[in-house]
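As a warm-up, study this chain.
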Amino acid sequence: MDAAHHPPDHDGTSPLTETDRLLERTILDLLSHRAPSATICPSDAARAVGGEGWRDLMDSTRQAAGRLVAAGAVDITQRGEVVDGSNARGPVRIRKRSPGTATTGDSGATSNEREGS
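Now compare it with the structure written out below.
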C-alpha cells in the first residue's frame, strides 16, 4: 500500500512492521472463517497475534483495520453502523466489506445509505 492508503494515525513514511502486516492478515483470516455479514472485535485479532500481551496491540490492530478500510477490504462498525475508525471512540467491530458498499472517506456512509436504500 502506498502512503495515501494509510490512516491519519500512521504517518505513511515509516515502513509497516511484520506485526502490522500480521495483524492485517489475521483480521482477514478471522473474517474469512465467518459468515459474510459477521463481525469480529479488534481484540480477536490482537489476541491471535499477541497472546498474553494482546492489549499492547490494540492500537496497532485498529490501525491495521483502518488500512484495510482504505484498501476496500473491510468496514469498521459501531452499534451496527459504518463509522470512520480513526474518529470512533469506544467499542468497534470489523466486517468484510460487501460488494457495492464502498464507504465515503468522511462520513462513513455507504453508497446505499446515501441513496436511501
